[in-house]
Amino acid sequence: MRYRKGKLLPGEAQTPLTPLAVDLADDIPTDKQNGERRIALPGGRDMSARYFGEVFSALMFNRQLPLQIMPVSASAKAVYTHRSSRTLEDLLLAMLKYSNNFIANQLFLLLPGREVSISASQKYVMAQLEAEYGWQDFNVSDGAGLSRQNRLSARQLMAVLESFRPWAYLLPARGERIQAKTGTFWDNHSYAGYYLDEQQEWQAFVLLINTTMKAGYRFRFADALIR
Fold it and tell me: Where are the domains of the chain?
């Protein structure tokens, strides 16, 4: 969402401003109600479901229908299956550009191929990484990187980047010489990807800082690599 001349507006033209977004915006201190603001959904699964329902209602029916959040019955039958025309490449470009945690976790859940559960995906990804890189001391708990239980070292992430080189173009660009992705907690900031050196070769880099810092520091670090 964003503020313009004191008025609350959606962050993107394609995303409607829902009642939940307005409620969350009301909690933002008045002195910080300016420019663009990104707000995480602090209410867990139920709040995420509510937000999805409100966005769907606005886009499909141009109004807010009454919502009730409840578990899906085991006897429920699918009434519609949507097959997207977008390729995996399309999804990844958008996911990485806009830091779409929902898409990241959906892809994570689909990785095992059979059982769809967070535990199955955790076991599958851990086994694949151990087999590929021989790692022992690491942990992957979710696909979006939001879990505090995730644990990778800079060296491990660098190894992943070396394997990821053919798909470096999927990462968001910063100018013409940096392709990299951020990761942010209030006390943890990361930036990892590739920079184009003086020999016009792409070099991998990883910045992991486990403390608070100014938001622009990691970008200044990356910019220094290409000077």
Answer: 2-61, 84-148, 152-227
